[in-house]
Amino acid sequence: MPLKRRLVLIASPYSLVDPPALYEPGRLDHTPSVNHDSRVFSPIYFCCIPCDTTYTKESASVVSNALLDKTVFVVGLGYVGLPLAEAFSRHLKTIWYRRNQKAVDELNATPGNRIEATTDPSMIKEADFVIIAVPTPVTKAKDPDLKPVESASKIIGQNLKKVAIVVLESTFYPGVTEEIMGPILERESGMKCGRDLFIGYSPERTNPGDEEHSHPNIYKIVSGMDRQTLDTLSELYGLVTNVCQTPDIKIAEAVKVIENVQRDLNIALMNELAMIFARLGLDTDEVLKAAGTKWNFHQYRPGLVGGHCMNQVI
């Protein structure tokens, strides 16, 4: 999908009124609407800004141009961080940091690659936006293992330039961004969060290898520590995906938790019901097909549960 068709600014999810109608020439099928329950707009191509400001396509382009001299720095986790870096590299200078020298060398040698891969953390000093996409393991005691995000935050803090925005994408419980990552960044950088540096949270939502639900085809949750940070991050992520803002960071963190829990628990429930139906001699597919005729029945089917970030929230 061409960039020019995805940068029409419509409005902010903070509004409970229909956004102004801004249409793509020749595409009158995108009628603006808002879901009053979720405050998520229909998939019109936009970057979220306050709806009391109306933008034409030309002014939307000017807003986006303010990002063109910025640099994005993505830290870690190849199968999540790399596709995100590739998406940003189509529009902005993008650097990808990993400690794995072999992975870095392979990427830099790839024909057509637009990403500058490095094992040198001092290059963080070039970044206006630093995105953390590190693993989310658990300890033997089944507690969240914060070492990856703590280590990444320490390295970033030691190399961060003033007024940069640091965004956490890894899956953690509500509070990690502001109560763990933020203080480490302050301590290591000697700067003050909210004055010299800024933070946000935008949980990764793509499935590795799933082209149908890649960045251009999904809504991405975006949050920031204040309104200006939120709007700036919305413009940034609006370059590569559709944006849904949340009022604060903890809500965004909780969104990721509930998304994972809902899917995992319901698939597990279907697995147990399928075993019960089998003992009763019932066809699970037929049961689900008939149940699906009810307007509020949620379609879950038996299958594998889990995912690369599921262990943090179950």
Q: What proportion strand?
A: 5-15%
Would you list the SSEs in sequence order as H and E?
HEHEHEEHEHEEHEHH
Rg calc: 21 Å
* CATH architectural group of the domain at 67-204: 3-Layer(aba) Sandwich
Strand order of the largest sheet: 3-2-1-4-5-6-7-8
Overall number of strands: 8
Shape: elongated
Helix content: 25-40%
CATH superfamily of the domain at 67-204: NAD(P)-binding Rossmann-like Domain
Largest sheet, in brief, is: 8 strands, mixed
Structural class: alpha/beta
Q: How confident overall, as mean pLDDT?
A: 80
CATH topology of the domain at 67-204: the name is: Rossmann fold
Name of the level-1 CATH class of the domain at 67-204: Alpha Beta
- Please tally the helical runs, counting DSSP H or I stretches of 4 or more residues: 8
Which regions contain 5 or more consecutive residues with pLDDT less than 50?
1-63
Describe the structure.
With 314 residues, the chain is of the alpha/beta class. Among the domains are: 67-204, NAD(P)-binding Rossmann-like Domain (Rossmann fold), CATH 3.40.50; 258-312, no CATH class. It contains 8 helices and 8 strands. It has helices at residues 57-65, 78-89, 101-108, 147-159, 176-189, 227-237, 249-279, 284-291, and strands spanning 71-75, 93-97, 116-118, 129-132, 165-168, 198-201, 219-224, 242-245. An 8-stranded mixed sheet has the order 3-2-1-4-5-6-7-8, sandwiched between helices. The protein is elongated, with a radius of gyration of 21 Å. The protein starts with 56 loop residues before the first helix and ends in a 23-residue tail after the last helix. The model is unreliable at 1-63 (pLDDT under 50).
